[in-house]
Amino acid sequence: MNLHPAMTPALVVMSFCLCGATPVPAEPDSSMMRVATARDGADKPVIITSDTKAYCNRLLNIIDAYGPTLPQDVDSLRMQGADMCREGRIRSGIVRLRRALVELKETTHS
Fold it and tell me: How far does the signal peptide extend, from start to end residue (predicted)?
């Protein structure tokens, strides 16, 4: 079977879709960043798809909705994240805020 050269990539993509796998993009999107976490010694990446101050504020509001009394580790991560976002280090701040939210949800089991 002789295929047109333009059909080969399409067939490869279709085969991945049919198998339930997705091909790894050649270049990461500029709006996506992988950051390795040190949590539990695992190499699970944190993928950030939004890197705006509005998203920082959204995470801060969610954390603050849990009440004024936060566990010390959560409060520390929240303060670090808020400071980083305020200083313009948005992605690093979001990583801290997301860690704080995960810790908070584990602590409160919600």
Answer: 1-26
